[in-house]
Amino acid sequence: MKVNRSRRRVLKATGVAATVGLGTAGCIGADDNGSGSGQTVDVGNLGTLEASEEVEIDFWISIGAQELAQRIADGFNEQSETITVSVSEEGDYTEVWNQTQQSQVAGDPPGIVHLNAIHTLPAWAEDVVIPAERLIGSEIDRRNFVDAVNNYYIIEDSLLGLPFGVSSVACTYNRTAFEAAGLPAHPDDVELRTMADWKQASEALVSGTDTDHGATWPKIGWFYETYHALLGQNVLNNDNGRAAPATESYLDSQASRRIYEWNKEMYDAEYYQLTQEWSDARQAFLNGQSAIELDSSAALAGLAGGAADAGFEAGVGTVPTDAESGREGKIVGGGALFVPTGVDGPKLEAAAEFMLWMAQPEQQAEWHMSTGYYPARADAIEVAEQQGFYEQAPQFRRAFEQFTDRTESSATAGVFTYDHSEIRSEITNGLDRLYAGDPVEDVLASTKTSVDSVLDRASDADPR
Amino acid sequence: MSDHASRLQVFDSNWQAVLLLFPTLVLISVFLYYPFLETVQLSFYRIRVLGNEQWVGFDHYLDLFGSDTYRNSLVVTVIFTVATVTVSLFFSLLLSFLVHETRRFTNVYLIGLIWPYALPLAVAAVVLDFLINPQLGIVTFLLNSTLGIEFNWTTDGTAALVAVILAAVWQGLGYSIIFMTAALGQIPESVTDAARLDGVGPLGRLFRVYVPLISPILVFLIVLQTIGAFFGGFALVDLMTGGGPDESTNVLMFNLYQDAFTNSRFGYAAAQSVVLFVFVAVLMYVQLKITDRYAYYGGV
Fold it and tell me: What is the pTM of this model?
């Protein structure tokens, strides 16, 4: 006999949320699949910047920039007479995800948490969070949001979280090295659109300059998901797990073969410098070992500054794809803001007010201009434009335009599944075998088997 | 009550003993036994997010024994443990013997040897990573330029495991050396003199005379080092290889951590924890039984 000890029961037992539903059936029931129906949501009159009584809430941020986030929160605090928001950095995305759950079991969840995109499905499906739609849906016009962002975070016509700190894969290149190699170096002319372009540029850089390798990017699954999206190829079946839980991967597709073959050719020719972590790739780019780097768009500001310190100029290039198959678009990275289940009363009102405030173009623009993360809404770009931001930092605009210039499809919406991090681990395990010398076909076959095995379990857990 | 019994009686009443033991018992219960029982309980539930628990009985244990990843982790851990304990104890013994044989600057040598143990494991991992990094490391550069050996442990799984074992041995040498030099220092000079008079050479003295005499310390070190290798490789693996390449350094503790805190499979990770505990407990029992037979407790 299966016995469920549901989140709701635990919350009830700890006496945390009087408004949490008291149903004793399993929380993963057919009529309880992430609608957040376990908690009554009453946030009063939104948009007043006030709660019904004085209240302090914590905002747990995942990606550093605590001071910047607090500065933005201070702007809110100054305007509100009743609400005080305190920002604290609680580690990386995974740590915040785990600590959010622990805080709920302990009965004291923070008002707002910042979670990675890959946690969106379990957070929603298992009632870890209250969908943003139920909190601020009545006060925001989703048409203002960038399509690429909507496409990821809107499920069953409900906005799950407020996208915050959205990013994509972005390409940075060493303009000085390109000039030295006799390659077109201006961002308008640089030839880095196709996989063949990357190979040719790398060849010219290695033979014509002191650069040891052409390109580098860290060994992280997100890049390979992006390569698939650019080729218009779903990584998983059932529309990348969006129409229904995915049960099989498409890592035996022609697109996968093309990506891995190109990667292998680049590696064998030493045009690709294998780096393990984000910091390794950045270091390799900034110390001149590689002249092209793929990174998160959030690193654009840091890379431009680092390049200037290192004595060269950086430009924004293009993430490569296969010319014959066209160019569909890049997937979303980064995270979103959520209100954990169990936050109620004035705390919930405060969290909703703050979330609504963070959704405004001014706040989105400030975060974008200070970090390189994309704003969730297009009108934030106009705010940045009015402030003359792109005249000083045109690379931000170029990266954002590349991100939004895409076909909206399940391939570009990206993977939506339980156990997404395990799938990424299996992809990097496969890359290890590729770099150790295994043939592309073997690597793809073994990676597909491993990913499909993860999906067996993931689809069982998925209540949709 | 006889005189003998009263001499052994430390406390006037049992209550005194209970009272004095109480703080320790409370601490152990709160921080050891209770979490252990909770872990055993968790292992019978499927937990995707904390607070959402679904009873699955022994499913996790069955999954474990059918899992290629887990079997790989078990093999990696056994190799890591055997290699670390053997190499570490062998070199500790040799180095302790050399220190014991010196007559000048003994303390200087001793401090030099113990120093790496004073480094936190995380610092040791970063330092060694820097020394033997395939791209930047001075050691790997010398190996390549003088012997033509490429020690590329970022792509070669066997080399990665060797790198982690090297780090564990290097960092752990000091601990064993402290105990071994102390034990060697307790051996009466008369034993050494007798061996010398009998014409026993230095290595003969070490392995045929000293090792049997310090065998209780060696048993103690074997047991502790084995437990340490099973439970303590985490920091090195996390910082140096992240369990890769292709899970070639994915020791049980790292696998358990990944499943619990990265993959959000708390119940499954709890089952791994219970199995690891049982495995090490049985191993310790067998190890003690075997080594006891050869250890000399007659007094040094």
Answer: 0.86
